[in-house]
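fwd from M.: "can u put these together and see what the complex looks like"

so here's what she sent:
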Amino acid sequence: MKRRWHTRQTTFRQLEILLAVAERRSVTAAAEALHLAQPTVSTQVARLAEAVGSPLFEHVGRQMHLTEVGAEVAQAARSLFDVLDGLEMRLAQRAGLEVGRLRIAVVTTAKYLIPRWLGSFCAQHPGITPELQIANRGEVIRRLQQNLDDLYVFSHPPHDLDIHAEPLTDNPLVMIAPTGHRLADRSGLNWGDLAGERLLMREEGSGTRHAVERFLAQQAWPLLDHVTIASTEAIKEAVAAGLGVGIVSRHALTHMAPGNIAELDLAGFPIPNSWYLVTLRGKQLSPAAQAFKQHVAAQLTDAAGHA
Ligand code: PGA
């Protein structure tokens, strides 16, 4: 029988640890995600590097990046886990059970949408363990490229990947100002009325920022003097505190203390925007992911019935 070096020297757990460190570029973050002690993670990475005979990571500043060899090992580990996930799925189907993990990655605005559906879904399917990642569009695209999750939610799905995108529901983007602002109670405002205001913008890589820039370019309206704040929650707080005006998902406002913030009545707004449920074309969806898609469709039909 063929003797394989890796069956003697390498464990699945080490490969899982390698992927966790590669994904987060940090031992600390990987240890946290895997509920392991930091030294355990470092030791297992070192053992794997020893078995492979070459360093797997290099430090760039405070971040850990895969070496070329590390990237090869990570790619092999991903394929291996894909095969094993497929096996897990087939075994679950064979047993007629709805068990397993459901991995969803969503852009930050969708945190006002998905957890509610996930809550009702998990109540009906207690055998399924959900993992929800929330990040900006750029980061969720990176996860999609690496095939890290079962389902994704975007407002602006990438055009250059082979994906299937199903519209979910509207995600209008509104202009907000603090209550008591000179423009807060006026109706029929135009973009020009905002001259002199400071716009609080999301960071590069954000889908909200992408939508705002695209909309302004389409309208040929100039960008206001702006500062970058990398979180919708922080933009809401900063607007309420008078730092400037901001453009956020209207859904983000339902979680605001009432009375702090006003939506401006501005021509062209809200910027029309929608969420999409995205899957990689050709990826075999797990029973859990298929069941969640059906759950979402049922919730949407229900909501349409009540509208
Ligand atoms: P993001 O998400 O701004 O955090 O990327 C927004 C979106 O695309 O809706």
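replying to her w this: The mean pLDDT is 91.
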